[in-house]
Amino acid sequence: MANKDYYEILGVPRDASPDDIKKRYRELVMKYHPDLHKNDPEAAKRMAEINEAYEVLSNPEKRAQYDRFGAVGGQGANAGREYDFNFGGGMGDFFDLDEILRNFGFGGFGFTENRRAYHDTSNRDTNKPTRGEDIEVPLTITLKEAILGTTKEISVTRKEVCPHCKGTGVEPGSGYITCPTCGGTGVVRRVQRSVFGEFVVQTTCPTCHGTGKIPKEKCHVCGGTGVVTETKVVEVKIPPGVDTGVRVRIKGQGNAGLHGGPRGDLYVRITVIPDPSYKREGDKLYYTAHITFPEAVLGTTIKVPLIEGGFETIRIPPGTQNDAEFVIKGKGARVVGSRRRGDLIVKVKVNIPTNPTPEEVLLIEKLKEIYDSKKKGM
Ligand SMILES: [Zn+2]
Ligand SMILES: [Zn+2]
Predict the structure, then answer these.
(1) Cα(133) to centroid of ligand 2, in Å?
(2) Per-chain residues with Cβ under 5 A from ion ligand 1
(3) How far away, in angstroms, is 199 Cα from ligand 1 center?
(4) Which of the ligands is closest to the CA of residue 228?
(5) DSSP at 241
(6) Delimiting residues of CATH 2.10.230.10 domain(s) in the chain
(7) What is the pairing mode between strands 266-272 and 135-141?
(8) Phi, psi of 154 (to 5 degrees)
(9) Using an 8 Å Cβ cutoff, are 74 and 30 in contact?
(10) Which class is 6-108 in CATH?
(11) What is the rounded CA–CA span in Å between residue 232 and residue 193?
């Protein structure tokens, strides 16, 4: 290995810049990648040499060492890196090919997943703790509940850790056998066609998920998934001030995690039923009070119902006009996160009688006469 001339292998001058080396390497990969030379037994060997040279020359430290001593330390240039050109039957290393294809505008060919699986051979443990998924459930509440906050019990169908196998997916006491799909390697290969010919794509074994072994007997309760679906009643606290479309997060009430991972979160998506008496705008609440024509003229007091229950009495002064507004401070709506409560706005509507009694007609006609004579006098 020490006698190889890496500059010669890549075909670059000794003073080539890192960019030149990278560019040259990409050209060589496009030209010599073993997957493009299926019938050439030398292709993998040639590509291995190119990779080895690039590995050293693309690394400033290794390149400096190589320039001084004509070799790099450790077990050759590939020390610490997993290359195995016979792996899976002479497939060759997919070193950066996917990225290169992308850079050349060909798009990827699914090698990323393969590469990950390939380089992950030392760490195939897919039994690592995984956080459970979040769940979203809808919840319809009244305007009163939205403004004042509430506590609700809702049914949530979610994944729970299987009580029989404690989440392992294995029938207690049965143990493991070698995966029949991949023969214990944890990977499967399939042929994919592309503009360059046929590629062998290697993916994580779908049967054992890369572990190379499967339970001898799957847990008969959960079917091997480690989780079971259950419907539970969950108490959720809805803070004051929510409105339609708001999602309230209930931490740790989502799906159970796998292999001891934490639970996901529960999101409650709020819909507020429109209220017949009140209209909400931000932190303001509107209430319409109906008064009669004489009340508007002479003044009165009215009782305004509050959303939290009870009444507030307000004075309507003489000569109040239609659409006049009166403010009851601090009895309106609320915005999530704000301590302050908005105001209740009372809007006055003066009722015009639509079906007056004969007596009323008589009096109103009398009133009209007075108005008419006032007009003539002007
Ligand atoms: Zn397998
Ligand atoms: Zn189970």
Answers:
(1) 18
(2) 179, 181-182, 205, 207-208
(3) 21
(4) 2
(5) T
(6) 135-272
(7) parallel
(8) -125, 150
(9) no
(10) mainly alpha
(11) 49
Residues of the chain with CATH 2.60.260.20: 278-372
Burial of residue 114 (CB within 10 Å: 0-12, 13-18, 19+) is buried
Nearest ligand by distance to the CA of 169: 2
Measure the CA–CA gap between 206 and 76, rounded to whole angstroms. 35
Q: Please report which ligand is nearest the Cα atom of 117.
A: 1
Distance (Å) from CA 127 to ligand 1 centroid? 14
97, 29 Cβ separation under 8 angstroms: yes
Q: Is domain 278-372 classified as CATH 2.130.10.10?
A: no
- For 78-136, how does the pLDDT look when each residue is reduced to its tens digit (9 = 90+)? 333 333 332 333 333 333 444 444 444 343 333 333 333 333 333 334 567 889 999 99
178 Cα–ligand 1 center, Å: 8
Q: Which ligand is nearest to the CA of 223?
A: 2
Which ligand ends up closest to the CA of 187?
A: 1
In this structure, are residues 204 and 113 in contact, taking their beta carbons and an 8 Å threshold?
yes
Per-residue pLDDT for 197 more than 50?
yes
CATH 1.10.287.110 in the chain is located at 6-108
- CA of residue 376 to ligand 1 center, whole Å: 103
Better pLDDT: 322 or 9: 322
**pLDDT value at position 76?**
40
CA 211 – ligand 2 centroid, Å: 18
What is the predicted pLDDT for the residue at 113? 35
- Alpha carbon of 188 to ligand 1 centroid (Å): 8
135-272 to CATH, choices 2.30.30.100, 1.25.40.10, 2.10.230.10, 2.40.128.110? 2.10.230.10
